[in-house]
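Our platform keeps sequence and structure together, in a single record for each protein. Such a record has a labelled line for the sequence and another for the backbone structure tokens. This encoding replaces a full spatial description with a residue-level series of whole-number codes. Below, we set out a record of this kind in full and without editing:
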Amino acid sequence: MESRFLLLSEVATELNVSDSQVYHMVRSGELPAIKIGGRGQWRVERAKLEEYILQKYAETAAWVRDNPLTEREAE
């Protein structure tokens, strides 16, 4: 059974980005996360990560639609 919550390093692995990029995404509020425990360790709920990924697909699709390739770029 998959864990409900992920470490930031696990999120980084899933997204193929650095740990520091994930930390910035969490601290900026871009990616929802919680702080738990006495040391305030960050955790990202797997469901929130999946929602984030879907949101990024939608944002990317909108960007592609609004920024079509020109003939020069297609080469």
Summary: The mean pLDDT is 94. The beta strands are 5-6, 34-36, 41-45. The radius of gyration is 16 Å.
